[in-house]
Amino acid sequence: MSLQDKFASLEGHLSGLVVGQKQLLNRMLVALLCDGHLLVEGAPGLAKTRAIKVLSHSVEGDFHRLQFTPDLLPADLTGTEIYRPQDGSFVFREGPLFHNLILADEVNRAPAKVQAALLEAMGERQITVGSVTYRLPELYMVMATQNPIEQEGTYPLPEAQLDRFLMQVLVDYPNAAGEHAILAINRREASKAADDAELFEPTTVLAQAEVIAARHEVLKVHLAQPLEEYIVQVVLGTRRSERYGEDLRDLLQYGASPRATIALDRCSRARAWLAGRDYVTPEDVQSMAHDVLRHRILLSFEAEAAGRAADEVVDELLARIGVP
Asked: What CATH number did the domain enclosing 200 receive?
């Protein structure tokens, strides 16, 4: 079985256990293939935790869930040095960030120092305790969640730090058919009275070496020169939006960084690869643009006062920039 077939089988397995969140599942696999991290925003009960837990049972590696709270300390994530009285030495005890798959639940509830420790791990693939730096595993993905309902007692991630996330995915409620499917799955799992490992047992478990090999295959997916220029123009459009209409001039205060160009390129290749193709189409770029850009652009005060959203600006740019 080829790597593409294995990932297709994995996506089908995930869809059978997490109903109504097809885009979230796809973006999780894209992030895994692009060696990136996800910021997921949605109301409670929309299977965000379940999705990453199901994925963790399908990929070789360790999973750890972190519940972020206002009293959390950086050492609760990174680990700390433990004093050994028998020989008077200090031994470093690794924290939960040393696992392969991390769920940072309600990341905006933790103070800035804790968020900084997480963002160092995400961006640099290392953590620093005192004067010593420790490397993190090669297979490493963080999925952080935010609850948009409750804002009291939260510490919003600074806009500059949001750039560390490969994508921001918005999760919405399932439709009526999805709700019926959720009830059916819940009844089936309740009747089994099994633990998570048995309930989420996949048909195929991807080894870490296979994930790394798949990443190399994704990088080889063909991206034509006109499409590369299209990606560049979309990102540049967030910085000089007035080039595509005077009505866009005052909507954005800051545009996307070069990280957005890299992310849009890699995510488009990963989406094409997951679809079984060895080439990127304009639809791949357009499909990934919102998730890659929405957290990297900063709306102006006028745009926020008018009730405009980042996705609307991305829609306008995609509609006005010529498709190759």
From this structure: 3.40.50.300
- b/e per residue 298-312 (b: at least 16 CB within 10 A): bbeeebeeeebebee
Query: Of the candidates 211, 245, 267, which is a domain's last residue?
Result: 211
What is the domain extent for residue 281?
A: 220-320
Mean pLDDT by 10 residues, the chain (324 residues): 90 88 94 95 88 91 91 90 84 91 91 88 87 90 86 74 91 90 84 61 82 96 96 92 82 91 97 96 96 93 87 92 88
Total domains, the chain: 2
DSSP code at position 203: S
**CA dihedral (192, 194, 199, 203) positive or negative:** negative
Decide the pairing of beta strands 126-129 and 132-135.
Answer: antiparallel
User: pTM, whole model, 2 decimals?
Assistant: 0.91
Domain match, 184 and 235 both: no
